[in-house]
Amino acid sequence: MRAIDANCEYLGLKGLQLMENAGAAIAREVKERIGTGKAVFIAGRGNNGGDAFVAARHLSSDPDIKVYIAIVGQASRIRTDDAKHNFNLLGHCTIEGLIEVTDASHLKDTGWIDDSDVIIDALLGTGISGKIREPESTIIDMINGSGKPVIAVDVPSGFDPDGGDVDKAVKADITLTFHAMKNGLTTPLASKYTSEVKVVNIGVCSDAEKYVGSGDLKVLQRRRADSHKGQSGRILIIGGGPYSGAPALAAMAALRTGADIVTVAAPASVAGTIAAYSPDIIVRPLSSDVLCEEDIETITKLIGSHDVVVIGMGLGRDGRTKKAVSEIIPLCKKVVVDADGLYGIELPIPEGTEMIITPHSGEFRALGGESADDVKAFASSNHLIILLKGKEDTISNGERVAINVTGNPGMTVGGTGDVLAGVTGALFAIASPVEAACCAAFINGAAGDLAFEERGYGLLATDVIDRITDVMK
Ligand SMILES: NC(=O)C1=CN([C@@H]2O[C@H](COP(=O)(O)OP(=O)(O)OC[C@H]3O[C@@H](n4cnc5c(N)ncnc54)[C@H](O)[C@@H]3O)[C@@H](O)[C@H]2O)[C@H](O)CC1
Ligand SMILES: [K+]
């Protein structure tokens, strides 16, 4: 949901607009339920509280509804600009009562809850993390002990929208959840915390979900301060033979995407050339001038010390290589297969292997696919993730289809596919395969767009690598 929000921003739809729609829906629900009476809003200091401030404003002009607002914590410490903005507007509205609750007793002393006709729970939404702190914990108890009708905003406060364990949460009569059903609300546990769930349309642009946007990059977590070498990905690139540049490009792209260790296993004939490109790449020479079965033992050991394998760039299509690729793939837990590696795939893929393939349309056809319309069905029947490269990239895990539109015709130059494979491999170490594929397509294309601004049609794959960090930042 956070990714969709951020994608909306990227498209120009502001969070404030979504909040307005969310709050308006809450206000309508309150009005429908009580018609006349006292509505008590319990608002946290995040955007969940922001939704409540909007709803309170909408109801404040209704002569039959009396609005009371309890902000949990100090109003001066409201955390987001959108929530702050909507809080400030309440200064121009007819509100019956507004207090700051820094201790649960403040709320109890008002008697508002006992006197209310409905409680609107906007304490915590999807931004919850960890065990419920005070005063929130006692306030949840107060709401649950009140016997009053409760409308929960987005999720019952304290409930994990992803469906994880619940320490303590509000018990609501109805939850109005925004834009899409949250996974957690479909679990049996949810029925303990809300009798009913309604999904409310808040006007999200369909493109925010259909197209990969900068918001999708939010899955790429900030690193912990105590991270150590290897935790952000050890990537094994298997490539080279007829070509030496392709695996080097993939390796440099993986490093620029944030991978900690990148090793290239390449035929002995090109290992020296690859090593000479950059001291940042670790190179392990294989036996001869193409990848072949004699290399399996060396490669098996290398796979054991890496998180993700990226195979295919510059390998060529020698029969020995195809055979070696088909034997290497089942040894991998996580593998990205690109370029010539695609010709060594044997379907169905082996159990225990998570695979992302990154074909262009010709390679996709060689695998038995036809067009972008087939991507979802092909991914589903073969249990893999496809990133089909094209003017628009199509990504699917067999359930969802996402389209990426970053990139430009300057990127038809050789090597940009190798860059994409490297970016994908690096992200696969730290994200789910479909997230990795979506983010990689976006980052590669956006880096290409920055390179195009500088270089036009003369852009090179190495220019794209140079701009990856700008996109990631
Ligand atoms: N597209 C949409 O669905 C929209 C959703 N909106 C609403 O925004 C919330 C999410 O807002 P966010 O600011 O990210 O977080 P919260 O308001 O849920 O909570 C943050 C708030 O809570 C405190 N906190 C976190 N964990 C705890 C804890 N364990 N104990 C106590 N306090 C905790 C934290 O410090 C913050 O202050 C979403 O649910 C929707 O309701 C927007 O309206 C836009 C559209
Ligand atoms: K809530």
Automatic annotation (TrEMBL):
One family name in Pfam for this protein: YjeF_N
Annotated EC: 4.2.1.136, 5.1.99.6
Binding site for AMP: 417
Any GO BP: metabolite repair
Domain YjeF C-terminal: 212-473
One GO MF term attached to the UniProt entry: NAD(P)HX epimerase activity
PROSITE patterns documented for this protein: YJEF_C_3, YJEF_N
Residue sites binding K(+) per the record: 48, 121, 157
Homology family: Belongs to the NnrE/AIBP family.
HAMAP family named among the record's database cross-references: NADHX_dehydratase, NADHX_epimerase
Protein name: Bifunctional NAD(P)H-hydrate repair enzyme
UniProt source species: Methanococcoides methylutens MM1
